[in-house]
Amino acid sequence: MDVRRERGSTFHIDDQSVLDLRGPKNTVDPWKPYHILAEEEYSRHRKLETVLTVFLTNQECPLRCTMCDLWKNTLDSTVPIGAIPAQIELALSQLPNAKKIKLYNSGNFFDPKAIPTADYDPILSRLDDFDTLIVENHPKFCGTRCIDFQARSGGRLEVAMGLETHEPAILRKLNKKMDLDDFDAAVEKLLDAEITVRAFVLLQPPFMAPEAAVDSCLATLEHAFSIGVDCCAVIPTRGGNGMMEKIKGSVGFEPPELFKVEAVADTAYRWNRGRVLVDLWDIESVSKCESCCLARVARLQAMNETQRWLEPIACDECGS
Ligand code: SF4
Ligand SMILES: [Zn+2]
Predict the structure, then answer these.
(1) Mean pLDDT over the full length of the chain
(2) What pLDDT is recorded for position 10?
(3) What is the pTM for the complete model shown?
(4) Domain with 154 in it
(5) In a domain, 274, yes or no
């Protein structure tokens, strides 16, 4: 039996079905980022550097991806002009000095309903001291606004896009409104404009046979690096948005176990083809062994920071 076809065949997903299963949004303020943080990340300049992240409050993304929970901290309408620069100002007043900043807006930075175009110049002038501006964006929004922003920024842009998976059937079920060709064309356009590209890649997305998850994730990373993506962020797929719980109850879904995250990292760090950043948020929750969990997560963190493969952790308790 083709488990993947079986898993995908009975489950219909469209925008309305995703919307119908959502819970309430959090209350957010158009003049305040909903979260800020500073962390150490291996940068496009091939060294560990402090990177600030400003989680901007803005209008909800118009796309309705199956696994997305970013809508929880968004607004139903466009923010007033001036609100985004004000959020950045507020964030910078509370964060340490750094040279790299992520402006993550739970959607697409170059969607003018999300980030008003009138705010581009005020944003850029406030970020004069940064050498890298990282924004998230869908291939559909990688047009002239994006290319123009790169020129106005003096070539400091890095664009992060959700590739998720190289498997066309699963990509369709993720309701991404793009196929692999769309992604590849967007990467080509960004690279032509000398924009650094980062891709988000899901480990064990819904509708994928769990036993195929590691190989499929690695194949997706390979594809991304082969077309010039500089950095792949590997995201272990999680539930929590309504639709994912329905999928779990209907055709089955589980977040990938820690050993699968390690298996992807073990191979990808040895390729030495581009940056690989494994998302370790709440990763302890998918560990099956309390004895070695912290050490294993620390190893993944160290590999993230050095981009070098490290010896696996041995554990007498679980036999890992
Ligand atoms: S494009 Fe990104 S922000 Fe928009 S729905 Fe999909 S995953 Fe969420
Ligand atoms: Zn163990």
Answers:
(1) 95
(2) 64
(3) 0.95
(4) 3-255
(5) no
**In whole angstroms, how far apart are CA 243 and each of 17, 69, 105, 293?**
8, 10, 21, 29
CA of 268 to the centre of ligand 2 (A): 23
User: Does a structural domain hold residue 65?
Assistant: yes
- Distance, in Å, from the CA atom of 233 to the CA atom of 275, rounded to the nearest integer, reads 8
Site to probe by mutation for ligand 1, drawn from 68, 75, 106 as the one with most ligand atoms within 8 Å of Cβ, is 68
pLDDT at 9: 52
Q: Do 263 and 230 lie in a common domain?
A: no
Query: How many percent of the chain have pLDDT more than 90?
Result: 92
Whose tokens are 């606004």? That residue is: 145
pLDDT of residue 11: 74
Helices 213-226 and 258-271 cross at an angle (nearest 10°) of 30
Q: What is the pLDDT of residue 6?
A: 40
Contact 230, 196 (CB under 8 A): yes
My answer on whether 237 and 285 are in the same domain is no
The domain that contains 150 carries what CATH number?
3.20.20.70
Q: Please report whether residue 275 resides in a domain.
A: no
Closest atom of ligand 1 to 175 CA is 6
Q: How far apart, in whole angstroms, are the C-alpha atoms of residue 296 and residue 236?
A: 15
**Ligand 1 mean position, distance from CA 65 (Å):** 5
Grade residue 77 by pLDDT with cuts at 50, 70 and 90. Answer: very high
Please tell me the residue having the least CA distance from ligand 1 atom 2.
107
Confidence band, pLDDT 50/70/90 cuts, at residue 238: very high
Whether 141 is in the pocket of ligand 1, judged by its Cβ within 6 Å, is no
Helices (H), 82-212: 83-94, 120-126, 144-152, 168-173, 180-192
- My answer on whether 75 and 206 are in the same domain is yes
125 and 222 belong to one structural domain = yes
Task: Decide if 292 is inside a domain.
Answer: yes
Which region among 3-12, 42-51, 297-306 has the lowest average model confidence (pLDDT)?
Answer: 3-12
Supply the residue whose CA is at minimum distance from atom 8 of ligand 1.
Answer: 68
CA 47 to centroid of ligand 1, rounded, Å: 29
Q: Measured from the CA of 176, which atom of ligand 1 is nearest?
A: 6
- Do 307 and 228 share a structural domain? no
Counting the structural domains of the chain, the total is 2
Instruction: Determine if ligand 1 sits within 6 Å of the CB of residue 139.
Output: no
Q: Is the pLDDT of residue 244 over 90?
A: yes
